[in-house]
């Protein structure tokens, strides 16, 4: 529904259920790939995707995500999780309560490409498609929430794919787990995209995104308190 993929929700849940963290990351990437891939197909058919806006980030995020994935092997994951949880909490608050009009300076392709590069590194490090990081940044810069969600749904599967290809070089794969998770993600992706397109206003989408970010931030930080 938010266009961000489901990796940030899937990873902590699977890990809580006993799945090794790296395998949970791989599964989260597969789920994010299938969920947002489904949404992207629907958005293209409806001609609602602004490709000029999405392209700079669609090129840079997938390029830098594999670098972040390899860096994850030598970074203390507890520190990264806590920092990211704090970032999500702040982002959710800004989305809900901070109003700002888009500035032309932020619409330049090279600025969007820089944003994509940084988010790509972070998404690879965390094993997510990057939507949960990119979406609040773009909304904070003043972009329309629905336009952002549609663009992110194109960017996330590309980033998830390159990150996944990097993780499988050092993580043992469970094909059954990946297949079942992907099937559920496709079903949920169709429902969420329909709700986003036809049932929710921009304000409602912001509330949904913020609530998801709050929940994920609490879930990620809870084990360390």
Please, could you describe this protein's structure?
The protein is mainly α and 225 residues long. The protein has one domain (7-224). Helices cover 76% and strands 0% of the residues. The protein contains nine helices and no strands. The protein has helices spanning 7-16, 21-45, 51-71, 77-97, 109-126, 131-140, 145-167, 175-198, 202-221. Helix 2 (21-45) packs across helix 7 and helix 6 packs antiparallel against helix 7 (145-167). The longest helix has 25 residues, at 21-45. It starts with 6 loop residues before the first helix and ends with a helix. The mean pLDDT is 80.
| Largest sheet descriptor | none
> Which regions have little confidence, pLDDT < 50, spanning 5+ residues?
none
How much helix is in the residues?
over 70%
Average residue pLDDT: 80
Structural class: mainly alpha
Query: Strand tally, please?
Result: 0
Number of helical regions: 9
The run of helices and strands is HHHHHHHHH
Radius of gyration, whole Å:
16 Å
- Distance between termini? 30 Å
Cα shape: globular
The total tally of domains equals 1
Strand percentage: under 5%
Question: Can you summarize this structure?
Answer:
This protein is mainly alpha-helical. It has nine helices and no strands. 47% of the residues are buried.
């Amino acid at each position: 529904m938010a266009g961000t993929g489901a990796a940030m929700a899937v990873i902590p849940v699977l890990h809580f259920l006993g799945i090794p963290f790296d395998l949970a990351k791989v599964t989260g990437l597969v789920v994010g790939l299938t969920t947002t891939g489904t949404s992207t197909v629907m958005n293209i058919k409806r001609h609602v995707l602004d490709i000029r806006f999405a392209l700079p980030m669609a090129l840079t995020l997938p390029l830098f995500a594999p670098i972040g994935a390899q860096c994850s092997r030598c970074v203390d994951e507890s520190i990264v999780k806590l920092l990211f949880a704090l970032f999500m909490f702040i982002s959710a608050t800004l989305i809900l309560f901070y109003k700002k009009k888009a500035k032309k300076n932020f619409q330049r392709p090279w600025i969007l490409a820089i944003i994509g590069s940084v988010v790509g590194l972070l998404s690879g490090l965390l094993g997510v498609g990057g939507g949960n990081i990119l979406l609040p940044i773009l909304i904070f810069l003043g972009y329309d929430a629905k336009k952002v969600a549609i663009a992110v749904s194109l960017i996330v599967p590309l980033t998830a794919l390159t990150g996944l290809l990097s993780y499988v070089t050092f993580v043992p794969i469970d094909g059954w787990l990946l297949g079942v998770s992907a099937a559920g993600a496709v079903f949920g992706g169709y429902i969420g995209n329909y709700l986003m397109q036809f049932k929710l206003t921009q304000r409602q989408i912001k509330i949904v995104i913020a609530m998801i970010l709050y929940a994920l931030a609490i879930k990620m930080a809870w084990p360390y308190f």
